[in-house]
Amino acid sequence: QVQLVESGGGLVQPGGSLRLSCAASETMLSFNVMGWYRQAPGKERELVATITLYGVTNSADSVKGRFTISRDSAKNTVYLQMNSLEPDDTAVYYCNARTSGGQYWGKGTLVTVSS
Fold first, then answer.
1. Taking 90 as the threshold, does the pLDDT of residue 44 lie above it?
2. Shortest CA distance to 37 belongs to which of 104, 80, 93?
3. pLDDT of 47-56, one tens digit each?
4. Quick one: which of 14, 19, 114 has its CA closest to 68?
5. How confident is the model at residue 101, as a pLDDT?
6. Are 73 and 28 in contact (CB under 8 A)?
7. Pairing of β 33-39 and β 91-99
8. CA–CA separation, 24 vs 72, rounded Å?
9. Is 27 exposed, middle or buried (0-12, 13-18, 19+ CB in 10 A)?
10. Backbone angles phi and psi of 28, in degrees to 5
11. Does the pLDDT value for residue 19 go beyond 90?
């Protein structure tokens, strides 16, 4: 069973930065796509950013220019660098990994942007 463990969430002031990490229990070569999603209170889960097996990235318009997804294959870890954080970025951030047979989710890490 694949396990995804997120870390790096916390409380940050508007304009601040955080880096989230997602450690996978097996090699990232197993996954076609890995990514980050988020769910704010009272809202549906939404895509934040993804990175494919070949390193192609994609991100939501709301975070373009502020958030960057990257990976370290040697550590089986995907990162989300979040800069210029805004109160609307407050949410639980989930790591996701997709294979041809299905997908896996982490338990999430809470990011709160508030002064």
1. yes
2. 93
3. 999 999 999 9
4. 19
5. 86
6. yes
7. antiparallel
8. 11
9. exposed
10. -70, -15
11. yes
Q: Which residues pair with 73 in a beta bridge?
A: none
DSSP track, 1-49? ---EEEE--EEE-TT--EEEEEEESS-GGG-SEEEEEEE-TTS--EEEE
Token pair for 67: 């958030």
> For residues 84 and 68, is the Cβ–Cβ distance under 8 A?
no
Q: Give whole-number Cα distances, 56 to 52, 77, 84, in Å.
A: 5, 16, 23
Distance, CA of 17 to CA of 84 (rounded, Å): 6
Helix, strand, coil percent values for the chain (each to nearest 5): 10, 55, 40
pLDDT for the residue 1: 85
> What residues contact residue 93 under an 8 Å CB cut-off, 6+ apart?
6, 9, 20, 36, 37, 38, 48, 80, 108, 109, 110, 111
